[in-house]
Amino acid sequence: MAEKILIIDDDIDTLRLVGLMLQRQGYQILAAQNGHQGLIKVHKEHPDLILLDVMMPDMDGYEVTRRIRTDPAISNTPILMFTAKTQLDDKVAGFEVGADDYLTKPTHPTELQAHVKALLARTTKSTKKLTTRSIERNAFVIGVLSPRSGLGVSTIAVNLAASLFAQTRMEAIIAEFTPGYGTLGLDLGVDDLDGLTNLLSMNPSEITREKVRDALISHGSGLRFLFSSYQPRDVQLIAQSSQFEIIENRLAKLTRYLVLDLGAGLPEFSQKILPLCDERIVVMEGNPISLVHTRVLLKEITDLGIDPMKITLVLNNRQRTEVQMNWSQVQQQVGHSISMTLTPAPELFYQASRVQMPAVMHQTEGLTTQQFGKLSETILERQVQRRS
After folding, report:
1. Could you tell me which of 297, 216, 215 has the C-alpha nearest to residue 262?
2. Is the confidence at residue 83, as pLDDT, over 80?
3. Which of 43-52, 145-154, 275-284 has the lowest mean pLDDT?
4. How large is the average pLDDT for residues 257-284?
5. 196 and 309 fall within a common domain
6. How many CB atoms sit inside 10 A of residue 380's CB?
7. Can you tell me the distance from the alpha carbon of 58 to that of 81, in angstroms, rounded to the nearest whole number?
């Protein structure tokens, strides 16, 4: 597979000419026209090398490098600064923030190719070693919940995780924190649904990272799951708040993205888990009763000290009916912006269930997949902003 090079430069001519030059050498070329766009693409594409301009509006190359080097998920990406700034102090500043190499514009194609080839050869081996150890880093944790049951929380959770995995190619785990109400295992054709039950039945001191890892089930989609049972008697385990906290902590050490299906309402364990999340997604429907329930839930979440800006509202219109309000009406009445409106697609979700795959993986080009893609892009962008 061709090595992937991301060029971040606000000069369109540079993007085109340098990109074409390197593409002819067999490299796969990606482009970004500013620092913010570049950071998002680094997270999504995981290039083998970044070719970075220094002088850009809004965020210069030094700041881009600084943010990359302080983010564990992308900190090992080699950076070649490529700029018109020729002063020695400029080069020193580049190396001080973490650049691996430095070239000044204009440069001869042969010189550029030599630097690119040498830097890729020098960093490939060490980058692979560091990536192997990356499992120790903390995950970006997303909690998904709704004001009442039956609004599609599990569907949102699994398809969001699948979309994040498809865009970033980084590990994602979905944990069903709904003892006694599990549905994902049945949808995905899995028989072993005792993982969460067994962990919640342990004393807190017994819940080690190894036991949590052993409770995970790998699925053909590439995702890993901690499934919840559908046995009614397991509902009583919802009171094991300490165990839930420990399980979340252990899971966050085992993956890059952790999506928690928190079910409905705000039980005690959710009140403890939500402040630990990086992002909270509240799922609702566009009808008057759901509006009332959602307003109350949003207030109770913010009463936990959670910033409203870190709450994402998803409008899940599951049925084609005139009773449903449109997103602008819902947004106005609930008093919170809506990040995604999921249009009805019952046939797709039925077909996906039959083949035991998340809908976005069953139909990779459809409207539903695009909607989840936009939601995951929003979350990836917020991840970059919050770690900057």
Report:
1. 297
2. no
3. 43-52
4. 96
5. yes
6. 20
7. 17
Cα 242 to Cα 226: distance, rounded to the nearest angstrom: 17
Non-local (6+) Cβ contacts of 159 within 8 A are 358, 359, 360, 368, 372
CB 254 within 8 A of CB 173: yes
pLDDT-derived band at 387, boundaries 50, 70, 90: low
Q: How many domains does the chain have?
A: 2
Residue type, 35: G
- The domain in which residue 73 lies consists of 4-134
Q: Are 256 and 139 in contact (CB under 8 A)?
A: yes
Task: Name which of 16-20, 242-246, 264-268, 311-315 the model is least confident about.
Answer: 16-20
CATH number at residue 300: 3.40.50.300
Last residue in a domain, options 134, 154, 187: 134
pLDDT > 60? residue 134: no
Gap between the Cα atoms of 47 and 41, Å rounded: 8
- Report d(CA 294, CA 143) in Å as an integer: 16
Q: How far apart are CA 385 and CA 195, in angstroms?
A: 34
- Tokens encoding 200: 């919640």
Assign residue 116 the CATH number of its domain: 3.40.50.2300
Q: What are phi and psi of 185, to 5 degrees?
A: -60, -40
Separation in Å, CA 9 to CA 26, 149, 387: 21, 48, 22
In a shared domain, residues 123 and 144: no
Same domain, 286 and 190: yes
Instruction: At 368, list the tokens.
Output: 């539903």
The CA-based angle 141-209-251, given to 5 degrees, is 15
pLDDT greater than 60 at residue 129: no
Rg (CA), the chain: 23
ω before 106 within 30° of 0 (cis)? Answer: yes
**Polymer length in residues for the chain:** 388
Q: Residue by residue, what is the 3-state secondary structure of 2-30?
A: CCEEEEECCCHHHHHHHHHHHHCCCCEEE
Q: Percent of the chain having pLDDT more than 70? A: 91
CB 146 within 8 A of CB 284: yes
Measure the CA–CA gap between 68 and 32, rounded to whole angstroms.
15
Residue 192 pLDDT grade (very low, low, confident, very high; cuts 50, 70, 90): confident
Q: Same structural domain for residues 143 and 125?
A: no
Whether this prediction's pTM lies above 0.85 is answered by: no
